[in-house]
């Protein structure tokens, strides 16, 4: 097969690794400076300890707004040396080390109240404490240990500041690029589903891809909002990036709308289906190019192939309309998809205009090195969250106690019985134990599998590689790929992190293959200890929290539906308030689905009403999608008489949604019946027009009718799911309903 660099680069850009690539480069530079520089000055021990400090600080740099990252890196420079010195001092007495580890683990668990910043920084601090325990003063005196860790953490902070000075907005550009990479994943999922000739709404890949897009969009918006507060308002880069974020979100939503196309296996639709696939492929290509331009520099963005494929799709649809044996419902599905994809043209035009303007003089070096930190605001918000969780009933407080007892037990086993290399027991507990049992099980499996694979690699390296220079190069390579995959491929990152840590510790205290095999045993022991703590110490079962999260999602959907239907009643287009309600509904729907997936990761005996919850999650997403489709019709200039009995239908939809949302979280709330919705829907639908007598040249009224009927179907399905949730899922549930 010939070597094709362009094809390889295209596939690499398609992967959402842009931010991981930047973090990997920074972390490798920060680790390499002390590792190679101090080793060249004949200080091997400080070089290795400083490399460990730089590595831990790089792992703690989880990304996000500049100010959060600056605070994280600054605190790491302070906390890592202090934790390591405490661990080295307390290691002389097993009971003191156990007590210190327990107190530190409580702080690590409660640090989650400060968000991702506190979680990552707490983990890095815990690892530094354990590093101090295994580093005797004879090898590294306290001043050398603390100073080396401070130097390594300082290198990471300095490298980050240099990167920020050179490209102050590159971070948010990476996040916007990830938005378009996630949009590409949505389009690719739609293409795969169409090629399988299955209804797209029945597959989970498209829904999960859209959830990931919503997550990326919200993260990019949060970063952009904080940067805008730092700006003096004269720079136009940030508003332009906001336009790109919105374009990525709307392209993904329109693709999801096109994903509602159910083509079946009609022979007459094959030509139109092929045209639809080609159009989506061109859209994926354009989104991939936008992501590349944002991440790696200005390229050539040409949307004409997409325009051409849209024209081919329109002509294929025209042929489909003229076929006498084509069911109206079938070509209406394609009409709906065509209109959804046609709406993307405006968003792509915006992207072309922004990319033309974005890479100018104003995008050069920033005016200041450090952004304003707002540390007082961050501290106040974190303390408020912390106070809210200082209760024995709070999940975070219970997780802190659970983590404290588990880490203390692992530390007692290591220090009390003087187990050689037994530090891997508390270290594994620290990594594996998560607030929810589903996350703990997943981490335990990933870390164990990754460790076994990593140990095999480490055994090969320890026995075969003796040259110090080659070992340093291997350490830098392993650092790069560990940081590259850490956020998205945890098992692979652990596989690479295992030989990285083993090689570092092997340089500090050579032990041969004994360390390699012992680490497997101690890692397994730590994973078992973490699982036991997750199961037996105040387990946080997701099934207890899922009803409240579903109720929140259904309430947000009900509010969004009320706003959209009010616009339908008045004949006006959507406003900014409706757009924000749509964002909230889509985000809460994604959060509810994530909670449901976490429940599925729990043991089977702890799951309840899985089919009812699946129906609530799925039909809530469908309802949000269909309301968004209705939104896009409003204000387009196409008019049709309002359906009769519309007021009664809107009132019935809103009332049913409100009752479903209440009963999901409160078993005592009355669910009522569907009589009002069914009666109003029966009166409204036939009066609009018959499917077999519609005007195929002006399908707007029937397209709108189809959306209203889909909305009514979704609301009815939500009611049925809420009824089954309350009355059970027995074999006679359908008959009783």
Describe it for me?
Keywords: Cell membrane, Membrane, Transmembrane, Transmembrane helix. Residues 412-532 form the Integral membrane bound transporter domain. One of its GO terms (cellular component) is plasma membrane. The chain is an all-alpha fold. The protein folds into three domains: 5-166 and 395-536, no CATH class; 170-361, Methane Monooxygenase Hydroxylase, Chain G, domain 1 (Up-down Bundle), CATH 1.20.58; 542-736, Phosphate transport system protein phou homolog 2, domain 2 (Methane Monooxygenase Hydroxylase, Chain G, domain 1), CATH 1.20.58. Helix content is 76%, strand content 0%. The protein contains 28 helices and no strands. It has helices at residues 5-14, 18-40, 44-60, 66-90, 94-110, 116-134, 142-166, 170-195, 204-230, 237-258, 270-296, 304-322, 328-342, 344-358, 375-389, 395-416, 424-432, 437-464, 468-485, 490-508, 513-536, 546-570, 576-600, 610-633, 646-665, 675-688, 700-727, 733-736. Helix 4 (66-90) runs parallel beside helix 6 (116-134) and helix 11 runs parallel beside helix 13. The longest helix is centred in the middle third of the chain and has 28 residues, at 437-464. It starts with a helix and ends with a helix. Mean pLDDT is 77; it is low at 1-17, 198-203, 360-371, 687-694 and 731-737.
Identify low-pLDDT runs: 1-17, 198-203, 360-371, 687-694, 731-737
Helix content, binned percent: over 70%
Helix/strand class: mainly alpha
The count of helical stretches stands at 28
Percentage of residues in DSSP E strands: under 5%
Taking Cα atoms only, what radius of gyration do you get, to the nearest Å? 29 Å
Output mean pLDDT.
77
Secondary-structure element series: HHHHHHHHHHHHHHHHHHHHHHHHHHHH
Subcellular location: Cell membrane
Membrane topology: Multi-pass membrane protein
Organism: Acidihalobacter prosperus
Family: Belongs to the YccS/YhfK family.
